[in-house]
Inverse folding.
């Protein structure tokens, strides 16, 4: 079961990712963290089930990855699900899970200046 802090952090990630998807590729945004972090964030957005296509259907994970990578001028990973699975297995002091690191980011700054510019 998810605690309140974890739920709030996931909601913040989803909100920040929704904001990111409002940008266009020609704005020149560049991702400054790892592809694994980005794919984990896209994964949270996908499971929130709030992004819909023009027919009202949920957008696929692959389409969210494609759109996000296009905006951030990145080559989409060949297997984004593998990166998400690897991210979920992070352990130890040097490999803190994204939720713990993101919580720290949100306390001191905003996503824009930290993860992409």
């Amino acid at each position: 079961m998810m605690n309140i802090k974890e739920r709030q952090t996931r909601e913040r990630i989803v909100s920040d990712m929704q904001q990111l998807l409002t940008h266009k590729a020609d704005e020149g945004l560049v991702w400054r963290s790892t592809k694994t972090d980005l794919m984990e964030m896209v994964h949270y957005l996908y499971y929130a089930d709030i992004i819909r296509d023009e027919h009202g259907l949920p957008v696929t994970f692959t389409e969210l990855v494609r759109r996000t990578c296009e905006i951030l001028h990145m080559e989409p990973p060949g297997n984004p699900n593998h990166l998400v699975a690897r991210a979920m297995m992070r352990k130890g002091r040097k490999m803190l899970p994204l939720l713990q690191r993101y919580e720290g980011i949100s306390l001191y700054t905003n996503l824009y200046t930290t993860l992409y510019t």
